[in-house]
């Protein structure tokens, strides 16, 4: 039976925690079941609803896999590669780890020219694949929505674990660069330790600014 795949990420715009990428596959005859259980873009769902759907997806999907790109790895990779290139490499890695190769795959494209992202991925694939990259694919294709839910649940769990381990620095927030709780958390951590935490992304403007401001403050 033909299998289709969807790929998405969670945490691309974060300055704390991992970037998670996930692939989900399903027999084409079961595709309608995704809509029946309420699968949609993970950003439109509450954390509780995402967890609930994740449990249901495990019973419907042919298979799923994910990869967590921790901040330390991202910091190293971004010294020589763009974030889009890193995501393309990891997307190809996920596709190649599948036991059942899909007939076609859809992925959410971060590239301004959406089709370019599919070309990037194919540069790292070791088998031929009909691959389509679209902006907002997580809203267009339920199988990509399924991947987005998996990626988001995995990242949420990672952030929750970090929040508990470092609760002495206050509310960690969502980890996104625009989150005032995350920014305040980083400021408190840097003020006490004179460095960023190991789970912070050093190549992000937000973290660089916090670190720079702390050292400038010490000069006066």
UniProtKB/TrEMBL annotation:
<dbReference type="GO" id="GO:0030145">
    <property type="term" value="F:manganese ion binding"/>
</dbReference>
<dbReference type="InterPro" id="IPR004649">
    <property type="entry name" value="RNase_H2_suA"/>
</dbReference>
<dbReference type="GO" id="GO:0003723">
    <property type="term" value="F:RNA binding"/>
</dbReference>
<comment type="similarity">
    <text>Belongs to the RNase HII family.</text>
</comment>
<comment type="function">
    <text>Endonuclease that specifically degrades the RNA of RNA-DNA hybrids.</text>
</comment>
<dbReference type="GO" id="GO:0043137">
    <property type="term" value="P:DNA replication, removal of RNA primer"/>
</dbReference>
<feature type="domain" description="RNase H type-2">
    <location>
        <begin position="2"/>
        <end position="216"/>
    </location>
</feature>
<keyword id="KW-0378">Hydrolase</keyword>
<protein>
    <recommendedName>
        <fullName>Ribonuclease HII</fullName>
        <ecNumber>3.1.26.4</ecNumber>
    </recommendedName>
</protein>
<dbReference type="InterPro" id="IPR012337">
    <property type="entry name" value="RNaseH-like_sf"/>
</dbReference>
<dbReference type="Pfam" id="PF01351">
    <property type="entry name" value="RNase_HII"/>
</dbReference>
<dbReference type="GO" id="GO:0005737">
    <property type="term" value="C:cytoplasm"/>
</dbReference>
<feature type="binding site">
    <location>
        <position position="108"/>
    </location>
    <ligand>
        <name>a divalent metal cation</name>
    </ligand>
</feature>
<keyword id="KW-0479">Metal-binding</keyword>
<dbReference type="InterPro" id="IPR001352">
    <property type="entry name" value="RNase_HII/HIII"/>
</dbReference>
<dbReference type="GO" id="GO:0032299">
    <property type="term" value="C:ribonuclease H2 complex"/>
</dbReference>
<dbReference type="GO" id="GO:0004523">
    <property type="term" value="F:RNA-DNA hybrid ribonuclease activity"/>
</dbReference>
<feature type="binding site">
    <location>
        <position position="8"/>
    </location>
    <ligand>
        <name>a divalent metal cation</name>
    </ligand>
</feature>
<dbReference type="InterPro" id="IPR024567">
    <property type="entry name" value="RNase_HII/HIII_dom"/>
</dbReference>
<keyword id="KW-0464">Manganese</keyword>
<dbReference type="GO" id="GO:0006298">
    <property type="term" value="P:mismatch repair"/>
</dbReference>
<dbReference type="InterPro" id="IPR023160">
    <property type="entry name" value="RNase_HII_hlx-loop-hlx_cap_dom"/>
</dbReference>
<keyword id="KW-0963">Cytoplasm</keyword>
<dbReference type="InterPro" id="IPR036397">
    <property type="entry name" value="RNaseH_sf"/>
</dbReference>
<dbReference type="InterPro" id="IPR020787">
    <property type="entry name" value="RNase_HII_arc"/>
</dbReference>
<keyword id="KW-0255">Endonuclease</keyword>
<feature type="binding site">
    <location>
        <position position="9"/>
    </location>
    <ligand>
        <name>a divalent metal cation</name>
    </ligand>
</feature>
<keyword id="KW-0540">Nuclease</keyword>
